[in-house]
Structures are given as structure tokens and as C-alpha cells.
Amino acid sequence: MACFPRPLRFWTALLLTTYWCGVHVSPALAGLAPSRTSGLTQVASVRDADLIAVQRVLEHEVVAQKLRDYGVSPEQARLRVASLSDAELHQLASATKGLPTGGDGVGALISVLIIILLIIVILKLLNREIVIR
């Protein structure tokens, strides 16, 4: 602190305090961004929305492989989906929305192992002994 003269420290502290108080007092401006529809995602009816949802599910690799295992080509599946009635299509789209996204559980296993490791580290830091019988 000896390299900065006392008046310079005082005015710097005063300037920074004034600046920080001004930043905290000024109102934050925020708002919602207006939504725009793009040419690729325009949905004209409920049927179109359901059809898009079902087609997205059919594009997944796992679903396409299962269809191939059953002897149904992706083109045949798309034609069959297009020929469904509105009620059938809505029922199929509703069923696909409720399905879990899937996974092999590796993330959950890693999370459990990390938690166990943290517990062991905390117990070691507290000089506790860990005995597994």
C-alpha cells in the first residue's frame, strides 16, 4: 500500500463505492423475446403437430431398427402413419410423448459412485474410520 498515496486510495475507493452502489440501484431491464414461426416449423392443425411428433419418433435409430426387425421398412411405416385417422394419430402421438428418453444407466451409476467417494473423503477428513464387513 505504500506505493499508492493516501488521496489516490481514498478517491479510488470512493469512485468504486459510488459505481457499485449505482449498479445495484439501477433497474434491470428484461423482457420476453417475441416468438416467430419459421417456415420449417409451421403447424397448421393438431393433426400436423401429431404427425410431426410421430415422424420424429420414427426417425430414431432404435425405433427404425425395431421396425426393420419386424420386417417393416421406414417408408411403409411413414405411409401407414399418414393413412391413420385423426383419433388414431393423436393416440399414437400421445403415447410417444409419455415414453422415457431411455439410457443405459451409466450416468446414474457414475453419480452413485461419486456420492460414495465424496462420503469416504469427508469421513477421512473427519478422521473417522471406515470399516466394511
Any overview of this molecule?
This protein is mainly α and 133 residues long. The protein has a domain at 46-97. The protein has helices at 6-25, 46-59, 61-69, 74-82, 86-97, 106-125. α2 (46-59) runs antiparallel to α4 (74-82). The longest helix is centred in the first third of the chain and has 20 residues, at 6-25. The radius of gyration is 30 Å and the shape is flat. The chain starts with 5 loop residues before the first helix and ends in an 8-residue tail after the last helix.
Q: Could you list the spans in which at least 5 consecutive residues all have pLDDT below 50?
A: none
The largest sheet, given as strand count, sense and whether it forms a barrel, is: none
Task: Compute the number of strand runs.
Answer: 0
Structural class of the helices, strands and pairings?
Answer: mainly alpha
Number of helices: 6
Which percent band covers the strand fraction? under 5%
Distance between the termini: 59 Å
Helicity level, as a percent range?
A: 55-70%
Shape: flat
Order of helices and strands: HHHHHH
Rg (C-alpha, Å): 30 Å
Average pLDDT reading: 80
Describe the structure in brief.
The chain is built from 6 helices and no strands. With 133 residues, the chain is an all-alpha fold.
Please outline the helices and strands.
Blueprint lengths: L5 H20 L20 H14 L1 H9 L4 H9 L3 H12 L8 H20 L8
Helix pairs in contact: 2-4, 2-5
Describe this protein with a few key phrases.
single chain; mainly alpha; 6 helices; 63% helix; 0% strand; flat
